[in-house]
């Protein structure tokens, strides 16, 4: 009977993703211990299981799943990142755009820089085609790994100077304070209902999430993609102006 990754994982008490990462030669990059890696490779050698890497690469297709990484943060008033209007709209925009294009999304809650290993493992294990990052500055070690390993990534609200594809808004035409007296900068729903209603411009989080997915898909498919997308924001004048 021919062994499958599931069989190896079950026999050794590890995950299928861990077996895949080790057999694809990425154990050291993803923090899998040498002991675990050796246990897997030794078992496969005894069972004469050899992964056909060339055939695997030749037939590789998009997995049609995208990882959306958001920052957990330390705000005690918001017990989870989805309690933040902006972040929830970015995730929603990416998810809806993915669904429309026949993709799914996996939400990844990131807390610390050290979690990079688990993020990379998802890519090496072919669980995702790439990542959309939102809500936190991308650490130098993350940027270095993404570029070196050529992992498809798009950052929402990131700094284009850091060398990763980004989606931002363009509000240069909105003059503050010459055009408005009191203003918000996110157009959350409550700004319509307080008294006086607050003039604001939208950060377009849903649209940014959607655009990030479309850019990431092009990158994952090896197509040309603009390095930076700037969406046009709209000033919404209300009673506070």
Name of the CATH architecture of the largest domain: 3-Layer(aba) Sandwich
Main β sheet profile: 6 strands, parallel
Query: What is the strand tally?
Result: 9
Low-confidence spans = none
Distance between the termini: 74 Å
Strand order of the largest sheet: 2-1-3-4-5-8
Based on Cα principal axes, name the global outline.
elongated
Give the helix/strand layout.
Blueprint: H1 5-12, H2 16-23, H3 34-46, H4 53-59, E1 65-71, H5 85-100, E2 104-110, H6 116-124, E3 131-134, H7 140-148, E4 153-156, E5 166-170, E6 183-184, E7 199-201, H8 205-220, E8 228-232, E9 235-236
Parallel strand pairs: 1-2, 1-3, 3-4, 4-5, 5-8, 6-7
Antiparallel strand pairs: 7-9
Helix pairs in contact: 1-2, 5-8
Care to describe what's here?
- With 241 residues, the chain is an alpha/beta fold.
- 36% of the residues lie in helices and 16% in strands.
- The strands form two sheets. A six-stranded parallel β-sheet has the order 2-1-3-4-5-8, with helices on one face. A three-stranded mixed β-sheet has the order 6-7-9, with no helix packed on it.
- 33% of the residues are buried.
Features:
single chain; about 240 residues; alpha/beta; 434 Repressor (Amino-terminal Domain); Rossmann fold; 2 domains; six-stranded parallel beta sheet; three-stranded mixed beta sheet; 8 helices
């Amino acid at each position: 009977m021919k062994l499958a990754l599931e069989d190896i994982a079950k026999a050794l008490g590890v995950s299928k993703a861990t077996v895949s990462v080790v057999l694809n030669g990425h154990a050291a990059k993803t923090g899998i211990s040498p002991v675990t890696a050796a246990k897997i490779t030794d078992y496969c050698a005894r069972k004469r299981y050899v992964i056909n890497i060339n055939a695997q690469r030749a037939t590789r297709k998009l997995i049609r799943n995208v990882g959306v990484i958001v920052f957990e943060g330390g705000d005690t008033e918001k017990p989870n990142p989805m309690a933040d209007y902006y972040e929830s709209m970015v995730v929603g925009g990416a998810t809806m755009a993915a669904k429309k294009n026949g993709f799914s999304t996996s939400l990844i809650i990131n807390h610390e820089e050290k979690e990079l290993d688990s993020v990379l493992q998802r890519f090496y294990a072919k669980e995702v085609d790439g990542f959309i990052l939102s809500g936190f500055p991308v650490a130098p070690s993350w940027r270095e790994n993404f570029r070196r390993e050529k992992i498809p990534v798009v950052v929402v609200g990131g700094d284009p100077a850091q060398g990763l594809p980004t989606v931002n808004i363009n509000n240069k035409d909105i003059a503050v304070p010459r055009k408005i007296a009191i203003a918000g900068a996110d157009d959350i729903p409550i700004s319509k209902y307080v008294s006086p209603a607050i003039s604001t411009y939208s950060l377009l989080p849903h649209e940014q999430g959607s655009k990030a997915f479309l850019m990431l898909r092009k990158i994952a498919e090896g197509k040309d993609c603009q390095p930076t997308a700037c969406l046009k924001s709209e000033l919404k004048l209300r009673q506070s102006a």
